[in-house]
Amino acid sequence: MISYGIDRLLAEPELRRPLHGRRLALLGHAASLSASGQHSLDALMALPDLDLVAAFGPQHGMRGDKQDNMVETPDERDPRHGIPVYSLYGEARYPTARMLESFDVLLVDLQDVGTRIYTYITTLAYLIEACARHGKALWVLDRPNPAGRPIEGSILEPGWESFVGAGALIMRHGLTLGELARWFAARGGHDLELEVVEMQGYRPEQGPGFGWPLHQRPWVNPSPNAASLNMARCYPGTVMLEGTTLSEGRGTTTPLELVGAPDLNFNRILARMEALCPAWTRGALLRPCWFEPTFHKHQGARCAGVQIHTDQAGYDHGAFRPYRLIALLFKALRLESPDYPLWRHFAYEYEHERLAIDLICGGPLLREWVDDPAATPADLERRLSADEHAWREQIEPLLIYP
């Protein structure tokens, strides 16, 4: 059985001893739960030997109540405990001096999904930098990466940092939040008390969960549209749909597991994908489907599309490469319909000038490859393979779990 960092901190008094007499704050969200299903904030407040005086909420809030991107959460007081809950996705996204003055040690208990653009990663990076600057300690209560150990995609290019790209990370990073914290601290040269309360029994290479403890722990949405393990596995590819005019399934019950539009023939697109690069379509079931979003893109329109299924017996964790899959879908669409208005122009995560697809991908590489009629899958493969090899070498010394 697996024990998360929060479970160990609650169960092992010796682990808590260095926290005695210090003012604590918790960064958490809706999926910050103990093994018993109790929210981490409530569980920590019940411990008589700890002094929890404040809390922080990332995007979507401490209780996970905000649906879409760029929907801010205000500072508030926790209705049960009366302590201040500071928002890091509101008037401030970087912690202020006033926020930092409220605690001595920040406990971080966030469920990540294993993809660079998930904003909880950026919030963690900002807090590591701020805590180092202000002499604060940061403890990560580690949790599984549901996308597992595979790495994929391109590394964020210099100058493309944003709230969905906190540094030179690869798209599917393969790390737990504790391992990521170690990477941020090492990469930034930050000198601070950084502790990772490690999990016990975490086996990211072991099926059938490959990073997620199936049949041991429930899936609780870490953000409103992260509705399943299937979503987390697809997300390193399907998140790129947010930068396009294609629906990513928002407004349905399976967001970020779908792709579709009302004016495209996905049977033709799938056939062209198979002809272009069959290896990039492997590992998961690609099911042609129809859906009608109740809100967001193509609201009320019947969309033809494809749903990606990793939740079936034929799933191959090593062969499934969602970044390449969605990149190939874009390329096939562009070849089928060269003038299709694929790239969406809108404000994305507080960026108003640069294209959303470039922010998501950490540079223009993917978009330029899609739009170049002469560029082939082999061309993209060369770049991705080089970045994946470089990332694997970077993270090897930081890995905690076998």
UniProtKB/TrEMBL annotation:
InterPro entries (alphabetical): NamZ, NamZ_C, NamZ_N
Domain Peptidoglycan beta-N-acetylmuramidase NamZ C-terminal: start-end pairs: 234-401
The residue stretches assigned to a coiled coil in this entry are none
Q: Which residues form the Peptidoglycan beta-N-acetylmuramidase NamZ N-terminal domain?
A: 25-229
Q: Which domain of life is it from?
A: Bacteria
Which sequence ranges are marked TM in the entry?
Answer: none
Named from the GO MF annotations, one term is: peptidoglycan beta-N-acetylmuramidase activity
Q: In its UniProt entry, what is this protein called? A: Uncharacterized protein YbbC (DUF1343 family)
Q: Which organism's genome codes for this protein? A: Marichromatium gracile (Chromatium gracile)
